[in-house]
Amino acid sequence: MVSTYPLTVRVPIGLAERLDVLAKRTRRSKSVYIREAIEAQLDRIEWEQGILEQVESIQNGQAVLSSLDEVRQRLGFSLDEVS
């Protein structure tokens, strides 16, 4: 069994009411749905944060950028092969 950690979350009343209705209707705990929602969104949020960090590093001049021609040359492609 996976270890768990208790977590308190404040949500708008309307959202809590919807969660209550769903839990009662399906006879599952609210925790199940909260956990599923977090799992479903956490990957997307982490991915978006990674993109924002990359953009910031480009804006700060910290990222090494290459032109398309430089990438083609590095990979050994000629313009004739790509066209």
Task: Compose a concise summary of this entry.
The chain is mainly α. The protein has helices at 13-26, 30-59, 68-75, 79-82.
Overall strand count: 0
* N-end to C-end Cα span: 54 Å
Number of helices: 4
- The best one-word shape is elongated
Helix and strand composition category: mainly alpha
User: What's the number of structural domains?
Assistant: 1
Biggest beta sheet summary: none
The fraction of residues assigned to DSSP E strands is: under 5%
Order of helices and strands: HHHH
Q: Helix content range of the residues, please?
A: 55-70%
**What value does the Rg take, in angstroms?**
23 Å
Mean pLDDT: 91
Structural commentary:
With 83 residues, the protein is mostly helical. The chain has helices at 13-26, 30-59, 68-75, 79-82. The longest helix has 30 residues, at 30-59. It has one domain (13-82). The chain starts with 12 loop residues before the first helix and ends with a helix. The chain contains four helices and no strands.
